[in-house]
What we know:
Helices cover 24% and strands 26% of the residues. By secondary structure, it is α+β, with helices and mostly antiparallel strands. The strands form 2 sheets. Strands 1, 2, 3, 4, 5 and 6 form a 6-stranded antiparallel beta sheet that branches. The protein has a 6-stranded antiparallel beta sheet with strand order 8-9-10-11-7-12, sandwiched between helices.
Amino acid sequence: MFTGLNDVVDYLRIFHRPWSESPGLDPAEIPGDLPDGLALLYREFGALIAMETDPGGGHRLPFAAQDCLMPLDRLGREGGMVEFAWENQGNWSCRSPLGPGDPPVYSNAAGLWRDEAPGYVEVCGSLDRFLATLSLQEAVMSCRNLYAPEGDLPPAAMAALEPLWLGGKYVFDEPSHDFFGLAGTDALLVQHAHTGTFLGSPSISDGGEFHRKAGLRVSRLG
């Protein structure tokens, strides 16, 4: 199990290696007023976050597949806050106070499902934990080998799941993301409370491999 953002970063260094052997930015390029978690992600993955096109010809990017962690040069600053993430159609964004440490995250996402839009409200008490959930979500959804299970997970597949990050808090009122590894593979699986279950692998292009290893039948999405 991951205990925090540092563990997620260690995992993603390997998971994202097919994208680039040198995915980070020079620390001298990173503004000193960013919260620690954001600075860490730009230092380790800033070049991937800044990608605008997939060299492989696809349309999904490692930090901008479902939603989007903003490239360093597109961060917004307003009222002592940094705006660092956007929904994929621009319907909501996320902000945190500038400065060191692990501040809370505020979002206007609730305007999509509440009759009276409340504006920016706190959605997660920890930016680090929010960034862990966002980064893992984008890792799954950006995989060149992306799958969805066919029906419910069978017992063999459930037994092969390795919990990595559970109860991930995002922009919703309740925790919404659970992430698992799948024994014997490099796959990352997300169970999303609102959109379903998805499975991404950097290397497994034959979906039948999941059935052979874990009794899991999947449909390829990309």
